[in-house]
Amino acid sequence: MSRFDRGGRGIEASLGLALSLIIAAAAAAIAAGGSGSGGAVAPRASGRTADASALYNAGTGALDRGDLGRAVAFLRAAERVEPRAADIRRNLVEARARAAAARGAESPGAPAAIRLSAAEAWWFAAGLLLLGAALRSVPRGGGIVALARRALLVAGLLLLAWLSLRAREEATYPEAVVVAPSLPAGPARDERSRPPYLLEAGEEVRLGRTRGALVEIRVAGTPIGWAERSGVWRVADAPGYTAGLPRP
Amino acid sequence: MSGTGRGRGVLARAAFLALAVCAIPGTSAAGLAIDATLVPDRITAGGEPATLTLLIRSSGLGLPEAPVPRVPGLTFDPAGSAQNFAMIQGRIERSVTVAYRVRAGKPGRYTIPPFRVAQGKESAVSGTLLLTVLPPGASFPSTPAPQEAWRGGGGPPEVFARLLVDQDHVYWNQEIIARLRIYARVPLDGAPDWTAPETQGFWIEDLGAPTAGSARIGDHVYVVNEIRWALFPTKTGRLTVGPAKVRCRINRVIPAPDPWSSLGFPDVEPVDVAVETDLVPITVEEVPGGAPEGYTGAVGSYSLAVRVDRGTVPAGEPAIVTTVLRGEGNVASLHDPEVPAPSTVRRYVAGASTQIDRTGNTLSGTRTQQVAILADGPGMVRVGPVRFGWFDPSEGRFHSVSSESIRIRVTPSTGRGTAPAGGVRAPEPTAPPRVSHGPVGTVSLGPPAGSLAVSGLALAAYAGLLVGTAVRRRRARDPRAIRRAALDAAGRTVAALRGRLAPGTAEASARRTAEALLAGLAARYDVRGAGLSRAELLAGAAERGANPTVREETEQLLGALDAIAYAPPDARARDAAREIAAAAALLSRWREELAR
């Protein structure tokens, strides 16, 4: 290749190399995490992963026993792993409905049928961004290509932002389920005295600060009082409670 | 209003009055005249002053002054003056308007003697004025003058406000309806802006939407806007409500000062007006003694309802007792009635809500409270009776109601959730358990590390591509890069000709090499070569820095390439190869020179 040919190719070559590296990295990462919601592998008792079937069976068993708080907690955790499973959705709706009926409230509606797990949503956002970058590297893209790549970029960024906010809220105020039959949430000792709120099994709340054996209960973004920590389970901790239960 | 602003206002009113007087036929017929007006003619001692306006007119250039008379008990402070000069029916007429603020220290009726002016043989005298001074805090029952703030054209005020209450002697926490009425007899520019009356010592609630109507006062019809509030005194004694403040903009009609200005049509000027109501005294008494059991401070008219969501409840599950208070009064401040329960059960407030109805003539509403009753063991739990007492101010006595006792049967715990509460919902069959493992995934909502890496890399690549595109575009617009590209093209052409050289194509190759060489020369020295002859191109290159050696070398090489056509056929290819190689070398040298 003469020096005349080398002039404008450097940047293209380096960008092509970068894209190749990205695609390779994405493929490797997808391959490594491919069993996130699809493969049937043995459950692990610890770590961040959980067996959806073990959670589902634990939740179904609790539902059959009438332990609505634990049923909702287990099934919510199972739904996070396998959000489109019909049996998990069905039993979760039933557990919520029974819990609502027990406290005289209206049954919550069924969740949307088309749902992604958190991991799938994160990968979906990454895929949108990757596709947008790939379209950006098309040298002679027309108007449709330009529009598509911008749409992909914006959609990917918005999805990333929403997922980040959701993950941040979960890290700050984790979702939890009341598992005690009734759980009073009242003011702390140094707070103004007021009647406690009475939470019942199966109610879904968020947790705030902790103080000894007490944890702050939040409903609709507002702290309503402090309750015994043993009366609520964080959804993310539910897999840890399946250790002593029978396996599928 | 600031002092300056108030002074301007007084002067504006005085000027307006003066213009109005000038417009009256006959008043300018005399050579010298004086008019005196006093607005308002009733004030309070130590309160807002009255405005005395003197208008002195003279049909000539001279204009006498009117001395201010001495009236014991009254003070006259100058508030400004304005002069006017007009041609009326061929005569020159001068006028001066002088305004004074008149204050009185003591109540009484004061007579302001006539003002006299004299000029030459002419003299004029004004009428006698009467000023009534009331004690401080006194009201003016027969006229809305105390609330007025603007009298653009004299007469009754154009805009004023009143604050009214339905009763001025009430019990503690008894409802008082306060009405702010804004009267306007001139068109308002937009809706008036009001401030709720000051209500220190009262609980205040809005009552309904503002309403509009009309009222006749004297000879004038006023548009009346009314805003209502419900007030509940929170302490006893002598309290005051108000003042309420109103700001609005009126379209003031200004008569033409003389027949020639604006063709005699009046001007319309928007004027901002601020008015304020008087203070309204309210006497608040304590609620009398002898309150019944269940009285927690409610005043008004109420009813109580108590219900329980189920009569049988498993141990450990709550039964919800709901108390509903309905009535008229300060519902928002009601204390929920006590729900008595045995000490063996636990009792929690499960919820409470207040609904207030502001649409009626009085404030009414509903206060609902849910109390959860929890028994840990089976048995019969007796809840209540729930008692509620209130004071009815219309009857001047207390009332009390009491519910029946509620019996709740607590059954042994049979396992939560197996039976629906109240039989409202039958359980649906559940999906069966699974027999296989998996799938396995994360319960966390955080991002997988791989997806984060891919997202980051994709964004970095996108950014890199954007930067690369920007660099390419910038380079494409660089003139030096364009010249380098042209030299590259000439070099590629010559290299191709050199590779394809054959005996039969030597002459054509030499000609095309010469053309490429000239194009390269033009690019090297930035000569616009289109349409130029070879000599012009060489001359242009010389002008742009080509030294004589380059020019001579190029001319020689071009001559040699031209001579290929005349070379013997057997030597033509060899000579062409030599000269094309020389041309390629020259182009390469120019490319390197340009790259430096």
Which keywords apply here?
A: 248 residues; alpha+beta; two-stranded antiparallel sheet; disordered N terminus; B: 596 residues; Immunoglobulin-like; 7 helices; 24% helix; 38% strand
Number of strands of chain A: 8
Instruction: Provide mean pLDDT of chain A, rounded.
Output: 77
H-E order of chain A: HHEHHHHHEEEEEEE
* Overall shape of chain A: elongated
Q: How many domains comprise the coordinates of chain B?
A: 4
Distance between the termini of chain A: 65 Å
Description:
The complex is a heterodimer of chains A (248) and B (596). The longest helix of chain A is centred in the middle third of the chain and has 30 residues, at 143-172. Chain A has 7 helices and 8 strands. Chain A is an alpha+beta fold. Chain B folds into 4 domains: 5-134, Immunoglobulin-like (Sandwich), CATH 2.60.40; 146-284, Immunoglobulin-like (Sandwich), CATH 2.60.40; 291-411, Immunoglobulin-like (Sandwich); 479-595. Chain B has helices at 3-22, 449-476, 479-499, 506-524, 534-543, 548-563, 569-595, and strands spanning 32-39, 42-44, 50-58, 74-88, 91-104, 108-112, 116-119, 122-125, 129-134, 159-165, 169-171, 176-184, 193-195, 202-206, 211-217, 220-233, 237-241, 245-254, 267-276, 280-285, 295-308, 312-314, 318-329, 346-357, 364-374, 379-383, 387-392, 397-402, 406-411, 440-442. In chain B, the strands form 8 sheets. Chain B has a 6-stranded mixed β-sheet with strand order 24-25-23-21-27-28, with no helix packed on it. The radius of gyration of chain B is 51 Å and the shape is flat. The two termini of chain B are 78 Å apart. The model of chain B is unreliable at 1-30, 141-153 and 416-424 (pLDDT under 50). At the A-B interface, helix 2, strand 1, helix 3, helix 4 and helix 5 of A face strand 24, strand 30, helix 2 and helix 3 of B.
